[in-house]
Amino acid sequence: MKKYILFSLICAVACWSNSFAQNPDWINYTNGNDIYVLSDNGNELWIGASQGGLGKLDKTTEEMTFYNSANSGLPHNDVYALAIDGSNIWVGTWGGLAKFDGTDWTVYYTTNSGLPDNRVYALAMDGSNIWIGTYRGGLAKFDNSNWTGYNPSNSGLPDNQVISLAIDESNNKWIATSGGGLTKFDGTNWTVFNESNSGLPHNDVSALAIGGSNIWIGSDGLAKFNGTDWTVYNTSNSDLPDNFVMALAINGSNIWIATYYGGVANFDGTNWTVYDTLNSVLPENECLAIAIDGNDNTWIGSWGLVKFDGINWTIYNSSNSGLPYNRVRAIATDDSDNIWIGTNGGGLAKFDGTNWTVYNTSNSGLPHNLILSLAIDDSDNIWVGTWWGLAKFDGSNWTTYNFWNSGLPDAWVYALAIDGSGNKWIGTWMGGLAVYQEGGVILNIGERPSTKIPSAFSLSQNYPNPFTTSTTIEYELKQPETIRITFFNQFGKQVDVIEESQQKGLNRIVWTPENLSNGIYYFRLQADEQVASGKLVLAW
Predict the structure, then answer these.
(1) Beta bridge partner(s), residue 72
(2) CA-CA distance, 205 to 220, in Å (whole number)?
(3) What is the DSSP code (8-state) at residue 460?
């Protein structure tokens, strides 16, 4: 049995129906709102959805069968988790745990079993045992006869809200909790990793780079983690010129650090060398990107593009070159020594040393012209993090990932890194860190499926859209929350914000913008440290 959760979170699709639409690239099967979980069992694909119940797709005949609380024993139509045990499928819902053998349903509640909470967020199989992560009741194990419950009172589980589960090849249970970090349980011992007990200087991660066995992390300063030990460098204990680290690049045993206020620094493990406007021709101390090419040249994104060969400096800008925009936020180099440049509103440019090629939303599949991060994989595909999702470009075709067609947790992709196993590590603004690989993620604990982190709310498309004077944003909260909706223009500038305390259930906010011109706007809804985003079109 294989369980697929695209990236790590939710795959949102259009409303389901009993028919399917087909084109040369896609076959779309529908029946509900957000698809929360998929589980593959040979010729059958099981689909759990928000408000849509459970679907079964026969991959041979393409026939869909739908189960919901009205036509089956499914206890609730919000399905958050699935697990397959031989011929049985286990279904975690917002209203209990169900087992379905193809004919009969068995439902477990807090009233008829040892289930600690009816709201089931995560499931994982360990032989004949099923492990159940719940919303507020902690973790449970059920061996089809006996129940064992784990919570902060009787175990090392740090928090009662279990949002995802995975089991590695050594049979360790990896448990992600809300507010309690990540926990490993080997059957006897519990180990918890979080910000307070590790060397990570801050939960906001702005840059990542991997060199050998070390991962370098730009945060509030610079951190190095070798899998065991953390080392933190900042302006107080080193010659790092600024704690606001924007970008990182590895060149042999040296690491180059681009900072927001202090220029760039080179660190060889012992010595620091800093370049700024006072001791070099760097046009600004605000450096947003850095990369190393095959000839050991250092490329720096500032107000313009800067090349440094160790002795000489060359500056490219929109006046003397084909650079489409002077503010450069991201740089990457491919195996052919092409320089890829992500700009702050002019799209993506490729420079081969002579010629410039520009890609933007008008002439390519780029989802947004504001580029935040770049990375290139072993196949020379370029991965582009933008203000509105992630894109992959193979030189001919574009593939776009966003929060409604994938598990990308947030549309603002600020950092990208690709490790030796081909995993794409994706740092987002408010959605945390995600990892993705076509065919499955490979981590040190063995290849395992990733599981979803359920949302504290479900967001619907605003209506009307486009709109002339006002538009309604509709969402459903799982519990009472203080929500914050921030509105941005297409260049990422905040234009409005709404913050209100609201009750559980369906809620609506009407946005009536003032003194804004026609165009595309974006909004970010935040509740309970989780976010979702949407796109609005204002047309007077």
Answers:
(1) none
(2) 8
(3) P
Q: How far apart are CA 153 and CA 135, in angstroms?
A: 16
Instruction: Map out the domains of the chain as residue ranges.
Output: 2-196, 208-436, 457-538
- Compute φ and ψ for 195, nearest 5 degrees: -65, -35
pLDDT at 5 over 60: no
* Amino acid identity for residue 397 in this structure: N
Q: How far apart are CA 180 and CA 174, in angstroms?
A: 13
418: which strand partners?
424
CB atoms within 10 A of CB 444: 7
Token pair for residue 155? Answer: 């175990």
Q: In what order do the strands lie in the sheet with 289-292?
A: 289-292, 298-302, 304-308, 313-316
Tokens standing for residue 453: 């982190």
Domains 2-196 and 208-436 share a fold: yes
Decide: 20 and 58 in contact? Cβ < 8 Å.
Answer: no
CATH architecture assigned to 208-436:
7 Propeller (2.130)
- pLDDT attached to residue 13: 28
Say which DSSP state 220 is in.
B
Q: State which amino acid sits at residue 480.
A: P
Give the per-residue pLDDT at 204: 58
The greatest distance separating any two alpha carbons of the chain, rounded to the nearest whole angstrom, comes to: 76
Q: Model pTM?
A: 0.47
Nearest to 48 by CA among 11, 87, 1, 7: 11
* Dist CA 301 CA 322 (whole Å): 15
**Dihedral-angle region of residue 7 (phi above 0 means left; psi in -120 to 50 means alpha; beta otherwise):** left
* pLDDT tens track for 133-173: 999 899 999 998 999 999 999 999 888 888 778 777 778 78
| Range 2-196: architecture per CATH | 7 Propeller (2.130)
How far apart CA 525 and CA 534 sit, in angstroms, is 8
Instruction: Choose among 27, 76, 22: nearest CA to 49.
Output: 76
Q: Which residues pair with 223 in a beta bridge?
A: 217, 232
What CA–CA distance (Å, rounded) separates 216 from 231?
10
Parallel, antiparallel, or unpaired: how do β-strands 34-41 and 27-29 relate? unpaired
* Distance (Å, whole) CA 67 – CA 78: 11
Cα angle vertex 60, ends 11, 91, to 5°? 45
- Tens of pLDDT along 461-511? 788 888 888 999 988 888 888 888 888 876 667 789 898 888 888 888 899
**Residues 6+ away with beta carbon under 8 Å from 116:** 110, 134, 137, 138, 140, 149, 151
- Residue 471 in tokens: 């538009």
- Class at the top of the CATH hierarchy for domain 457-538: mainly beta
Per-residue tokens: 71: 């036509």
Q: Give yes or no for a contact between 532 and 33, defined as CB atoms under 8 angstroms apart.
A: no
Contact 524, 499 (CB under 8 A): no
Q: Are 149 and 110 in contact (CB under 8 A)?
A: no
